[in-house]
Design a protein that fits this description.
210 residues; mainly beta; nine-stranded antiparallel sheet; two-stranded antiparallel ribbon; 11 strands; 51% strand
């Protein structure tokens, strides 16, 4: 894999805040719609479908706990077929208001983003049960705020559609694909001047395990 960084300072000296202790009660309103037929190809080279998600999280110290804040998340994706290739586009917007614990931040980090193809409403969010890390590929640093925009685009091509059958501890190799990838993102505090947008681009190869 080769990912290059362009367009903004790396914020490499910034650090994540120290987590805060306290009781917290959250009420979440969540709706997701995914228009995509189930298919084995969705694990490595999805060529159709789209989805949208909206989620509102509300915590109030008047009802329970020590923190009061609201977080709004809007997320969407689309897969388009381009001949033998597939084009993937995703956009995510987040807003945070109030006084959350320090670990409930909105921002860009250098923590690893983990995804499981086909899990839940993937690719809306990360692994089910875990908060998604927003990490532009090829960028290193931490940028916090209460507003976030994160977009990603991939043009993925089949390299080896069918791998010779080999079984290793119950796993077999699926298709091998390669892609041109690009991420554009930013995080900032409302009312303050935005830093330059983070823009990264590169290429990668991926093999699926079944």
């Amino acid at each position: 894999r080769k990912i290059e960084f362009h367009g903004a300072e790396s914020d490499a000296s910034a650090t994540l805040p120290k987590p805060e202790e306290g009781k917290e009660g959250i009420v979440s309103l969540f709706y997701a719609h995914v228009n995509r037929r189930p298919h084995r190809r969705n694990l490595d080279l999805p060529r159709h479908g789209w989805g949208a998600l909206g989620q509102l999280d509300v915590s109030s110290a008047k009802l329970y706990g020590d923190f009061s804040y609201q977080r709004l998340t809007l997320d969407s994706f689309a897969n388009l077929r381009l001949g033998p290739a597939a084009f993937f586009l995703r956009g995510r917007v987040m807003g945070l208001k109030g006084e959350p614990p320090a670990q409930e931040f909105v921002g860009l980090t250098n923590d690893l983003s983990i995804y499981l193809p086909g899990a839940g409403i993937q690719p809306l969010g990360g692994v089910v049960g875990f908060v998604e890390n927003h990490n532009p590929r090829g960028w290193h640093g931490v940028r916090l705020g209460n507003r976030l925009i994160f977009t990603t685009a991939e043009l993925r091509f089949p390299l080896i559609p069918k791998f010779p059958l080999m079984n290793i501890l119950g796993f077999t190799f699926g298709a091998i694909t390669t892609a041109l990838v690009a991420d554009v993102a930013n995080a900032w505090y409302a009312g303050e001047e935005k830093k330059a947008w983070v823009v990264t681009g590169g290429y990668e190869a991926k093999i699926s395990l079944n």
